[in-house]
Design a protein that fits this description.
alpha/beta, Rossmann fold, 8 helices, 7 strands, binds glycinamide ribonucleotide
Length: 239
């Protein structure tokens, strides 16, 4: 049996993946416990799911932070250890044809939000951070402060497509519109790109000719609920 690991979770919405992980922890089908659930979005159902089983919850309201940054960002608003040049050199999130100002605004606003996340997360003893429907990209500012041991990834994400196909925000929609006959989901580690990190596990399902996008989402989520706990257990077994 593997050591029981402490898992932090970040969500943005309904949290059905979070629920699958909560259930797997509670019925001991995985060697893990959830130590917190954070959201970028206040009032979402996923937070209620966590609170119902006494998991600590918190919100870092990204939309509000971005709105306030649009009025202007002072150096004093930025984390003390924020270095724009270093982060810009590493990041692979913003298209290279974006203007210097756009890239700087994006990286600064995210670092302000990410520092708030880190300040809360660092209060916990955490082996693994699991993104369970967290709809925000993480910049190198955040990633480097979680992945502190070279070569050891500690942030996992679930993506609604068979990567490397269809990265981005609408994996099942892109799969459907392309006319694919097989869809799927992927759990991978987070690196500096969008949905590019090392793949931990995948599950596929058949798409019938008359399947709607809703059918695909339903089939996909059912696979996700099986896959995510399995990948967390794989991580626990690797320690
Ligand atoms: C899931 O389909 C997950 O794969 C996707 O959001 C949904 C969250 O559902 N994640 C992404 O697209 C990440 N880029 P849930 O809140 O019910 O778990």
């Amino acid at each position: 049996m593997a050591k029981r690991i402490n898992v932090g979770t970040l969500i943005s919405g309904g949290g059905t993946n979070l629920q699958a992980i909560i259930d797997a922890c509670l019925d001991n089908s995985i060697d893990a416990d959830i130590v917190f659930t954070g959201s970028d979005n206040p009032g979402v159902k996923g937070l209620e799911r966590a609170q119902k089983v006494d998991i600590d919850t918190f919100v870092v309201d990204y939309s509000q932070i971005i709105r306030s940054c649009k009025k202007g960002i002072n150096d004093a608003d930025l984390p003390n250890d924020f270095n724009l040049d270093q982060i810009q050199a590493k990041q692979q999130l913003v298209a290279t044809d974006a203007s210097k100002d756009q890239i700087a605004f994006f990286l600064k606003t995210r670092a302000i939000a990410e520092k708030k996340l880190l300040d809360i997360i660092f209060a916990y003893d955490m082996d693994l951070l699991v993104l369970a429907g967290f709809m925000r990209v993480l910049t190198p500012y955040f990633i480097d402060r979680i992945n502190t041991e070279p070569g050891k990834y500690k942030i996992m994400n679930i993506h609604p497509a068979l990567l490397p196909s269809f990265p981005g925000t609408d994996g099942y929609g892109d799969t459907f519109r392309y006319g694919c006959k097989i869809g799927g989901c992927t759990v991978h580690f987070i690196d500096y790109g969008e949905d590019t990190g090392p793949i931990i596990g995948q599950k596929a399902f058949e798409i019938k000719d008359n399947d709607t996008l809703d059918d695909i989402k339903k089939k996909g989520l059912e696979k996700e609920w099986e896959l995510y706990p399995q990948c967390i257990q794989k991580f626990a077994d690797s320690l």
